[in-house]
Structure formats: structure tokens, C-alpha cells
Amino acid sequence: MSVPGATLAGQLERQSGWLTEHWRWLLDTRVLPYLPPIPSALDVGSGPGVVAASLSDRLNVTCLDIDPEATAKCRSRGLRSIRGDAHALPFRDRSFDIVQCSFLLMWLHDPERALGEMLRVSRHAVLLLAEPDHGGRIDHPEPLHPLKDLMVESLRAEGADPHMGRRLRALCSSCGVDAEVGVHPGSWDLERTRREAGGEWDWIEGTAGKSAEPLRDAWHAALAGGTLYTFTPVLYALIVKR
Ligand SMILES: C[S@@+](CC[C@H](N)C(=O)[O-])C[C@H]1O[C@@H](n2cnc3c(N)ncnc32)[C@H](O)[C@@H]1O
For the chain, which end, N or C, has fewer CB atoms within 10 Å of the first or last residue's CB respectively? Predict the structure, then answer.
């Protein structure tokens, strides 16, 4: 990922802000009623631990990431964290009640193998908390329509799969498991849009580089005029082990 560090950190914070409420609902309605209080969880590809921290009132989380900086950042937040590769998790079978990941599978060269590993080290459930689908992106008004193809191409050039969201069902089937697959809801009032749209644009330019520049004025004009609407579907998959 070539997105500058500060911009990426801001993006992870924003994403978590949009999705945490629905992650909590998923845990509270689908997973936690069947487990002892504060079950153990492994967060694979945890990054700096934003997601793990946001769910730490419900889960006893261990973070794992391939990047030592991410591991250090998690520890600085007081989270347990180890360095490791999602393709070869350094744990015995059935080590954690829950294994989760977010915005990870789209970056992996072998997501099937990583999901196989998550299934192996989990006892009760695997929660693929969030994978985006940039091919389903909506931007309004019309001058911003090229953003969808631009982001798909730019993420692909970075080595990501921009359509991982729509592939979650197929991924689970290829690992021999069924899953509840869904799309996270989202709502943004004008104030929130104004607060977040600057950072969102920085992330877009950090990802797409110079190709995004011709769209910058249209983005900011729409923001100033109160007409900007942008949405990228983010999907989840919940696998409950029988
Ligand atoms: C987009 S960030 C998402 C971070 C976090 N899950 C979140 O949603 O805020 C992807 C993270 O996956 C990590 N990662 C990439 N490949 C990995 C691998 N093979 N094993 C473990 N972590 C990996 C990266 O270092 C990065 O921290």
C-alpha cells in the first residue's frame, strides 16, 4: 500500500467510525449470546489496532500483523500484539473463540489460504468484518462518476483486489464453509460529510495519485454546495462453526 502513513491511519479511523456500530450489532445478536462473557478473539491484519480497541469491551483481543510498526502501535494502545503472517498463523488449532479480520483479505496474495488458517485456529466463529467492493462505488454529482473506475484501477495497481467484497461468498465456499454474507448500512448527515470529506479526498489522492487531480475541484465544489454523496459498499461474512 503506497498511501502515506498519516492518510492511511486517518482512513482506518474513519472506516472504523462508520462500521463499529454494525460490528457490535453482529457480535451482540449472532455470536456473543452463544459464548462465555468476553471471549478470546484474534484480529488478523490488525493494523494499528483501531478495530481491536473499538471492540475490546466485548472481546479479549490478540492482534496480529505482518508489519512491525503496526504491532508496535497496537502495543502502545495497551493491546496484546504479535507479528505474524495471515497465511501461516502461529497458533495451534482452535486457539481462539473468534477470529476476525477487516480490510485485510483484499491485500493478500492467497486469501483462501488465510481464511483456511482463520478457520483452523478458531473454535466458534470467523468474522470477516469488512471487505469493500469498489466496483459498487457511488459518487454524486455526475462529474465525480469517473472516481469508481479510477479507484478500482489504482487499488489493482497497488496489488489489491478491489472487488473482494463480492467475492466473500465464493471464498467461503472454496474453503468448504457456509456464511451469512451482508452489506453494512451507512448514513452520513451533512455535518459528518463536511467533517470527513477532506480526509476522504486525501486518501483518494494518496491512492490514485495524479490521476485524481482533475476531479479535485469537482469534489470540493460539491462539498461546499452540499451536494456531495459518496458510498462504497463494505461487505461482511460471518461463519459459525458447527
Ligand atoms: C488496510 S490495513 C487494515 C487494518 C485493520 N484491520 C483495520 O481495519 O483498521 C491492512 C493490514 O493488513 C496487514 N497485512 C497485510 N498482509 C498481511 C499478512 N500477510 N499477514 C498479516 N497482516 C497482513 C497490513 O500490514 C495492514 O496493517
Answer: C
